[in-house]
Amino acid sequence: MTIRIGDRIPSANLNTLKDGVQAINTDEIFRGRKVVLFSVPGAFTPTCSAKHLPGYVEKFAEFKSKDVDVACIAVNDAFVMDAWAKNQHVPEGLLMLADGNGAFTKVIGLEMDGTAFGLGMRGKRFALYAEDGVVKALHVEAPGEFKVSDAASMLAVV
């Protein structure tokens, strides 16, 4: 079942790359904080690299001025997410999260089958806003679209 507004973000481990692969629990990410979590189908893919992540990089200071943390998640490994962060000049503090096996993405019901394109199982393109781990806004893109999960759309709801 897909996560909905009012639901609590489930507890799960994701990975980051800092002095090796480090697990980080969603409770640590969301507890007591305001967070925008946006998901991309894949690091280094066209829309993700040309529009989605760059929009959050560009508007990162605006989110911080509203005391909102920003995290990007993809069904990729931590090494790929780190390389992509460097390639995209992601600022310190914008959390790049690897959901390598897609377990978290599946638990929240936002997985996407990209096998027809050689991608395997991935995450849908979406963005959510949560306060203290409770979803307050959820914007899920229709297949092939990029209209509602961008940084400007999320700034409008935080």
What does this structure look like?
- The chain is of the alpha/beta class.
- It has a single domain, classed as Glutaredoxin (3-Layer(aba) Sandwich), CATH 3.40.30.10.
- 28% of the residues lie in helices and 28% in strands.
- The chain has helices at 26-30, 46-58, 60-65, 78-87, 103-107, 151-155; strands spanning 13-17, 21-25, 34-39, 69-74, 95-98, 111-113, 121-123, 126-131, 134-140.
- Strands 5-4-3-8-9 form a 5-stranded mixed beta sheet. The protein has a two-stranded antiparallel ribbon with strand order 1-2. Strands 6-7 form a two-stranded antiparallel ribbon.
- A hairpin with a 3-residue loop joins strand 1 and strand 2.
- The two termini are 25 Å apart.
- The model has no long low-confidence stretch (mean pLDDT 96).
List the uncertain runs. none
Cα end-to-end separation: 25 Å
Write out the strand line-up for the largest beta sheet, numbering strands in chain order: 5-4-3-8-9
Name the CATH superfamily assignment.
Answer: Glutaredoxin
Mean pLDDT reading? 96
CATH architecture classification name: 3-Layer(aba) Sandwich
| Helical content band | 25-40%
Q: Please report which band the strand proportion falls in: under 5%, 5-15%, 15-25%, 25-35%, 35-45% or over 45%.
A: 25-35%
Q: Compute the number of helices.
A: 6
What gyration radius follows from the Cα positions, in whole Å?
14 Å
In total, how many domains does the architecture comprise?
1
Compute the number of strand runs. Answer: 9
CATH class (first level) name:
Alpha Beta
- Within the CATH hierarchy, at the fold level, what is the topology? Glutaredoxin
- In this structure, how is the largest beta sheet organized? 5 strands, mixed
From the spread of the alpha carbons, the general shape counts as: globular
